[in-house]
Structure formats: structure tokens, C-alpha cells
Amino acid sequence: MTDETCESKIYVGNIDQRVPESNVIKMFSPFGKIISEDFLWHTRGPKRGEPRGYAFIQYSAKEEALLAKTKMNGRFVSGRPLVVRLASEKHLGDMESKFACAETKANDARSSTLGQMNRNAKIAAIRNKLKSLEEQGGCAPKKPRLLTNSLPPGNKDHSLTGYQESD
């Protein structure tokens, strides 16, 4: 795909499953001449034949794609805001520099560290809660049960089990 093709192609996401392909074309045709439209469907699995919730629309000019993006991004359709961006923008939004990519990677690394810290903090909080409950007597630790079959063979002392053997 050439740069020119990428610049005139838009991604349309967060499309409600009830919105038919023909309505997507009708919504985006006022902004320019649509050369192609690719409405994606699930091809296997339990959702086979259902819409995937996104499409790609190719306009004849970059300006048309930019106009569609400007006018339709965030517009509510069937109760859901559409996500419209140039196909070349991928997940970065309007930031197309290498610095934005590096910043995203740094944020991902920070969030995974914070996620681990949050997990450890949660574990510590649970331990503290259990300890305070034990101290209050609200949650006594379980005492091990003595199983009746745990007596050695030949030992007839069943005083702990409540079983009485008749002579």
C-alpha cells in the first residue's frame, strides 16, 4: 500500500453490530467519492457471520478522508461514539512521530510496574485485614480436623471422635 493510499483511507471503529454495511456507506459518502469499503466480519468461531465492529473506507483524495475524520469522529451512532482516524495513524491518534511511539512504550512499562505494585499493595491489604479480623476474634483461623481413619490400626481410643464401640 502506497503512502497516498494510506492517507486517503480511514478506519471506522466502535460500530454497533446492528448498523448494516449500507448505512456505513451512506454515513460516509457525503464527504467524498468512496473508492472502496471493507466492512469486516467474523469468519470463524461462535461469532461467525457477525460484524466485527469496524471498517475501512478508501476515498479518492486525502482531503476527503480528513474531512470525514473531522466530521464523524466521536459522532454517536446507535448509542456508540464512532472512532474515525486515518488508517495510517493506527492506535497513536494524531501523533505520528517516533517520539510518540517511544513515549507509549515508556508508559506501558510504567503501567506494568504500577500494576505489579497495585497487586502487591492489594495482597498486603488483604493480609492486614485478615490479621485484624483474627485479633478481633471475628475470623478465627481454622483448626485442623481429626479424621476418624487417622488413628493407627489397633488403637481403639475414639474419645476425640465421639464414637463409642460396644463390647
From TrEMBL:
Domain of life assignment: Eukaryota
Protein's name in the database: RRM domain-containing protein
InterPro entries xref list: Nucleotide-bd_a/b_plait_sf, RBD_domain_sf, RRM_dom
SMART domains: RRM
Keywords: RNA-binding
Record's keyword annotation contains RNA-binding: yes
Ranges where the RRM domain occurs: 8-89
Coiled coil: none
Record bears the keyword RNA-binding: yes
A molecular function (GO) term: RNA binding
Chain spans, region Disordered: 134-167
